[in-house]
UniProtKB/TrEMBL annotation:
Name of the molecule in the record: Anti-sigma factor antagonist
SUPFAM superfamilies on file: SpoIIaa-like
PROSITE patterns in the record: STAS
Entries under CDD domains matching the protein: STAS_anti-anti-sigma_factors (cd07043)
Boundaries of every STAS domain copy: 17-118
Pfam families linked: STAS (PF01740)
Domain of life, per lineage: Bacteria
Protein family (similarity comment): Belongs to the anti-sigma-factor antagonist family.
The organism of origin for this protein: Streptomyces glomeratus
Amino acid sequence: MSAEQTPLSIEVTMPREDVALVIVKGFLDVDTATELHHHLANQLHHGRRHLLLDLSSVPFMDSSGINIILKAYKETRQVGGSVGVIDPAPAVQRILDLTGVSLTVPSYRNADEALDGTCDALSRP
């Protein structure tokens, strides 16, 4: 990791019993993606079916971060849950768009909108 990179910081809150809001700060890359994966797996293990990833403070994400998001998407769908991304930084949104992830994983402007999105996902057949 270069001296210019921001170390990864992850904070998890539970706005609802089945929802984990995961606030990620720093570079999400090959050196840090495993840490995020462990946090997400832990939330799923504890019954959180909906994972909301706040990526507003992630200035850079590589394919490792994309893989973690897609893996979380697959795992949450198996238990009737969902994954959403909150306010991704412009560079991260570009990666999500270029890779097609934004077609599968919805993006929201803020946590309230994302929570409303999880309620909508619950009401769909």
